[in-house]
Automatic annotation (TrEMBL):
It comes from Streptomyces collinus. CDD domains: CAP_ED, HATPase_AtoS-like. Residues 18-124 form the Cyclic nucleotide-binding domain. Gene3D superfamilies: 1.10.287.130, Histidine kinase-like ATPase, C-terminal domain (3.30.565.10), Jelly Rolls (2.60.120.10). The keyword Transferase applies. This is histidine kinase. It holds the Pfam family cNMP_binding. SUPFAM superfamilies: ATPase domain of HSP90 chaperone/DNA topoisomerase II/histidine kinase, cAMP-binding domain-like.
Amino acid sequence: MSGRTAPCDPQEIGALFLFEKLTPEQLGRLCAEGRVERFEPGPVYAEGDPATCFYVMLEGTVVLYRRVGGDDVEVTRTSQRGVYAGSMQAYLGDRVRQVYNNSMRVTEPTRFFVLPADTFAGIMQEWFPMAVHLLEGLFFGSKSAQRAIGQRERLLALGSLSAGLTHELNNPAAAAVRATATLRERVGKMRHKLAVIAQGSYSPEVMANLIDIQERTAERVAKAPALSPLEASDREDTVTDWLDDQGIPEGWRIAPTFVQAGLDVDWLDQVKAAVDEDILPSAIGWLNYTVETELLMDEINDSTARISHLVDAAKQYSQLDRAPFRHADVHELLDSTLLMLSGKIGKRIKVVKDYDRTLPEIPAYPAELNQVWTNLIDNAVAAMSSAGGEGTLTVRTASDHDRLLVEFRDTGVGIPAEDRGRIFDPFFTTKPVGEGTGLGLDISWRIVVNKHHGNIQVESEPGDTRFQVLLPLTAVEEESA
């Protein structure tokens, strides 16, 4: 938006704090190469447009905005003479993308001293070469450090995730190996017991009864009810007494297996009625091996299913087999991240999921949102570790007007009030030296705000800290680009 041009007075601009140290010749050059413009209430420039001018306010009121989701969020409002905005990094030239980083409006008739970006860059390099070198070093050095430490932080996060995943995979894998070795032993004993039975002079009807009982026993194992420890103990005592009454050796060892499989005294009475008395001990022993093999196969199935689930969760977390940008279910992303971090969370921290499953899928970069969840969960765990290592992490999803809310609530030590305004700044951290890079929340902010056009906000007091991520439910045009 162009304003009305007015004469430039060197004395007027020389009274501004930005130019007060300049010589009369320098002020004269500024007036000759720049201009004074008067803008009526409304927009001056828009975020993302090419940065063509450097603006210094002479009088009036300016408001700076940043685009967040579908809304303009006010960043600064001031009437102080001499405040400046626009192409402030023009001296960097084409080494950075020269666009406006915010939008500027005026709320009343306002006058600006306006300097074209190329002129501003040339004057800076001619009048203040040392300052330009220092500013360039600060800008690019900060970017380089941020990039290097960001890579280091990602490697540390990857190492932590790998350790947690390895730990989670080791348990079911070890259980499957143990169960397989035991199963081989039980099958061998089962074959031996069957050979002993077969060598006896038993009628085909008796053998058919044994086979039928074996089949029905296997079916019963699959439908075994879950018992409380007290119920299981009572049944084991009852089954042990029944086995002892029948003269079955080591009934105390067999009883727990039968109870775990859902076999009770009524079932054993049916077995006793189906076979001759002299074959009952062998039949009970054979059924014991049958039950053990079924239980071991269930254990192997559970272990391999757990491994498969962990591998699926790892794929979901990394999104290696998915499109970078797509519609995603945030609950799947949250679950995979929590599973990947379960080793780091530990058993002393209780995780509560308060999900609104009616929420729709949202357009997103899933792998990058998983990085956001990782950073926020990691910070919550660290806060609770500082508070004694115990606590509750609550992950909540809900609808917030036209946005989706993901909230991470922890019962840690909280964030001091004086630090809350800085937690999203690069390199700022409240963790001890060496334990934090200060980039986790900065990266999360850029992913949510800049890439997804959402927002992150925080509320904190000791024992109740909440990080809230707000994501748009519909795609923004820039996202597909």
